[in-house]
Amino acid sequence: MTIESTPDIAPTATLDTSGLLCPLPVYKAALALKPMEAGDILELICTDPGSLADIPAFARQRGDHLLDVKDTGDKQVFLIEKGTGQ
After folding, report:
1. Is the pTM of this model over 0.85?
2. In terms of Cα–Cα distance, which of 2, 7, 3, 12 is closest to 81?
3. In this predicted structure, what is the pLDDT of residue 1?
4. Which residue among 24, 29, 79, 86 sits deepest, i.e. has the most Cβ atoms within 10 Å of its Cβ?
């Protein structure tokens, strides 16, 4: 997966799901995005390596935009821009 890095984007909200395994990071991200406005950005922090596949699929299905992914090996950080569909 290739995501263009956008380090200058400031998230609207941050959700740390460290220590949680699938499906909890996806579920909690959905809850966090629900009250947000289209265009708002959620910074999602995960430690489950499965998130590298789960979160992009989740964002696509919802119509959100995955702006950035950083994988340090023990932590994954996603920037998700809420789309207009949800």
Report:
1. yes
2. 12
3. 43
4. 29
